[in-house]
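queue> holo job accepted (NDP)
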Amino acid sequence: MSYLKEVIARTEEKNPSQPEFIQAVEEVLMSLEATVDKHPEFVAASIYDRIVEPDRQIIFRVPWVDDSGKVQVNRGMRVQFNNAIGPYKGGLRFHPSVNIGIIKFLGFEQIFKNALTTLPMGGGKGGSDFDPKGKSDGEVMRFCYSFMHELFRHVGPDTDVPAGDIGVGGREIGYMYGFYKKTLNEHTGVLTGKGREYGGSLIRPEATGYGTVYFAAEMLATRNDSFENKTVIISGAGNVAQFASEKVLELGGKNISFCDSSGTIIDMEGIDKEKLNFVMELKNIRRGRIKEYVEKYPNAVYYDGKSVWDVARDEGIKCDIALPCATQNEIHESHAEALIKNGCYCISEGANMPSLPKAVDIYLENKVLYGPGKAANAGGVSVSGLEMSQNSLKLSWEREEVDNRLKVIMKNIHESSRNAAIAYGFDEENYVAGANIAGFLKVAKAMLSYGVL
Ligand code: NDP
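queue> job finished
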């Protein structure tokens, strides 16, 4: 058994019932074999065993009172995974599926993603099994206050700086930041994704979606190609999906889909600016379901209970580019095969780990331009890093300046992934290996400098 397979086996033994975490560890470590040969000092210092063990995991009770006066209890958690290169940084996810294994997978991915951005940020992630769907604003507020009532003692602008993720948008960040500010009597950049009026950065809401499209554009450019006149399939209908769709439109492409956990809409005429504004209003203000799209635009079709990838496979829908922007493990083997059969040759992941390992193998075998989440969706945390810089400087940069910095960061991530792939003997288009190696090397070297901690 190879050295890294032994590390994976040990990790699996120590973390039973955490399949997503093991999947993420396996995906990263299996592309690091070449680093073992080149860096015996990493093996000597057990860096691989140390990097899969979080610095600490905090799990806590979150009691709150619902609108009927009943006391509800949820579980909150924060995994501070690795701060070798900067304060812990990573989002908070509020979704009923959240458990410690999912938060650990996200925190582990975040270590390498944050290293790729070139900004000084370590990896962390947190969340709760609380479901904001169907809750009143008052209930969400009381939950957020209770969540922060515990979390505030573990975070800080130089310690750990959470942000949003699934189920945590501007409203939730506002409640949590308000509670933190009031409790500590200080106005510091402890959360990112803040409102514009109280320290947020322009372009932060757009950053993950825009960045995913910028990364795809960089991959396409290596083949003298672009988004112009391309048909695009996007999953999700939340923050990342909406702004990915907006940028696709700006670059001359045509997005034909959105989904939520209830079903999928396909609009073969394309989702133009007016239709996208409708989706933004529907999802962000009215907090409605995506099926309402077809009531407003009857030429579109709604598929109840099916994901975008099920629909694309079962209906044989053709596309050039796919942008998964909903959740982990959405694209299975059969979806990947169908996408490629129907003409898809570029996949850029807005979501974290949306493709199962078998699907990734199929992309690589078929020479699909494939940007894995930790590289392709790093735009969000990059602009979070820029929000931290602005907060420290007590400055607020213009929209154009932040967008330009985002573009440069995505370009650099693309380049460093490609260069690392080449340097370690992989095909230059193997962004999976390239991103894992580039991110890992930076963190591993920093860990080595500290001795055994
Ligand atoms: P949102 O909560 O804004 O949106 C998530 C969307 O995905 C919703 O439309 C949701 O539908 C849908 N969705 C969630 N779970 C499922 C499911 N099981 N099946 C089908 N649809 C589903 O989250 P974000 O847009 O912020 O996050 C999307 C992805 O992007 C996540 O993987 C996240 O980790 C990743 N990401 C986000 C970043 C950010 O800055 N926000 C940064 C980097 C990565 P419904 O409304 O029904 O739940």
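queue> The two ends are 27 Å apart (CA to CA).
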